[in-house]
Amino acid sequence: MAPRVRLVCFPHAGGNARLFHGWASRLPADVELLAVRYPGRQERMDEPCVETMDDMAGRISEALAPERDLPLVLFGHSMGAAIAYEVALRLEDPAAGGPEPALLLLSGRVAPHRTRATALHRAADDVLVAGVTRLGTLGGDAYAVPELRELLLPVLRADYRLIETYDRQRPPVLRAPIVAYVGDRDPGVTRPGVEAWSELTEGDFTVRSFPGDHFYLAPREAELTADIAERLARLPVARPA
User: Fold this and answer.
1) pLDDT in tens, 1-39
2) 84, 65 Cβ separation under 8 angstroms
3) What's the 3-state SS for 139-188?
């Protein structure tokens, strides 16, 4: 079956595309899944990490240029939600050409104009790791292994530098509709902060919560992907000319 929509997924700080490894088998055959591989990890381990939002979003937007032959839906978790929003802004710019994103799915992230300033990227290693592990069950196990900790910490610190230096006090409003997802026991995300994404779209806005912490999407993968599949099926999308 030929795909009718392309779902582009953005991982969290310190994360990688493996987070979405099981999604393709759970989504309908007419949904093509792309998972963003940030520099500095997996097959791109030899590349320097990207440490600014403008650089990251700019690179991804350029990389997506040839992928716009199908309608795009962007899903981002935590830091990835902020990156997805910034990529959507660039794809909605008339100068970019091509169709605009059909939908944004933003998970585990407060709207940029409601975030609290933090500086974990400047903290000692133990403090940085503690800041991640407090968020939930997916965040900390690898950092307990000395060899993995040494490998992963530079990536985590670079990602935190990117998201903690990202500043959008008056963020632009998108035309694309937004669905915001959140774990109901996420210690790092407030419900009002999530609902503030409604101020950044001219389209429809929905909030959907799942049981769990900041990394609810791992144990709730089946429920989350089912919800996403249902929303994609309802999209009035057509293949771009």
Assistant:
1) 789 999 999 999 999 999 999 999 999 999 999 999 999
2) no
3) CCHHHHCHHHHHHHHHHHHHHHHHHHCCCCCCCCCECCCEEEEEECCCCC
| CA 14 and chain centroid, separation | 12
pTM for this entry: 0.95
Q: Check the CA dihedral 160-20-10-215 and report its sign.
A: negative
Query: Which tokens is 136 given?
Result: 């939930």
Instruction: Give pLDDT tens digits for 193-227.
Output: 999 999 999 999 999 999 999 999 999 999 999 99
Q: DSSP code of 215? A: T
In angstroms, the CA 8 to CA 157 distance is 24
User: What are the residue numbers of the active site?
Assistant: 78
Beta-bridged to residue 37, according to DSSP, are none
| C-beta separation of 72 from 101 below 8 A | yes
